[in-house]
Specification:
It is globular and about 70 Å long. The protein has helices at residues 2-34, 36-46, 53-61, 63-68, 74-89, 97-117, 122-136, 139-152, 157-167, 172-177, 179-192, 195-201, 210-220, 222-225. By secondary structure, it is mainly alpha-helical. The protein has 14 helices and no strands.
Length: 234
């Protein structure tokens, strides 16, 4: 009798677990189908293919589906990031301010959602800092985002070189507010970075970043920086 009851309970538990997995699998399939077009267009952009402005605008607007659907799958979220940033990059604040402002606001809102899904993504923190800086460069806020990006990827060369591009564009106030993170990036880049890639990155340094960079260059010493005087093959 007891054995029969045990078998029945086991069967019920198995059925419940199976149903749960079927529901989860169905939701993932539905998410993939609903966001397939976003992923396809994002992949084309990431591959460097030409994508018309109206196509980017159309599918960037669909990123709201990711938020409304509460999809936190990394591939879906990342595709949305690619699209909203591509849409913002294609706007000219001097030609059509309203469209630029809408794209910037949408990108910021989406990046905040992306970080709620993946708070340890260094690149998303960097992109949010960049978007915030062009909307209104609040030094403390932007510096905080940059610090998160550095902490989450302190030795990733791709991220360090990408961050340098934005460090190079920030104001004195933001650079001062994020000095510890900036110093960490510059020191790591000069000590450990690939000579040719770093040389290409530091070819042009903004006036506000120059004194900080020169100080970092001096602090790491000649033994570390001597290699940058060697020529790089094309």
């Amino acid at each position: 009798m007891f054995r029969g009851q045990f078998v029945s309970v086991t069967r019920i538990a198995f059925i419940i677990v199976t149903l749960v997995f079927l529901v989860l699998a169905g939701r993932e399939l539905y998410a993939s189908i609903r966001t397939a077009s976003i992923s396809i267009v994002a992949e084309r952009i990431e591959r460097g293919e030409t994508v018309a402005d109206d196509v980017v605008a159309k599918y960037a607007s669909h990123s709201v589906d990711v938020v409304d659907g509460h999809y936190c799958r990394s591939d879906i979220v990342a595709a949305g990031v690619t699209l909203v940033l591509a849409q913002l990059d294609r706007q000219n604040v001097n030609v059509n301010y309203d469209t630029w402002a809408a794209a910037a606001s949408s990108a910021r809102q989406y990046l905040r959602y992306a970080l709620s899904c993946m708070p340890t993504n260094s690149n998303f923190w960097l992109r949010l800092a960049a978007v915030q800086s062009i909307i209104a460069e609040e030094p403390a806020a932007v510096a905080g985002m940059m610090k998160r990006s550095v902490v989450l990827a302190p030795y990733d060369q791709v991220m360090i070189l990408t961050r340098f591009y934005f460090w190079n564009d920030f104001t004195d106030a933001t650079l001062a507010a994020a000095k510890s993170a900036l110093d960490s990036d510059l020191t790591t880049m000069l000590k450990l970075g690939d000579r040719c890639r770093v040389n290409a990155t530091i070819k042009e340094i903004s006036p506000q970043l120059r004194p900080i960079f020169d100080q970092a260059w001096t602090s790491v010493g000649d033994s570390a920086t001597a290699r940058f005087r060697q020529r790089c093959s094309k």
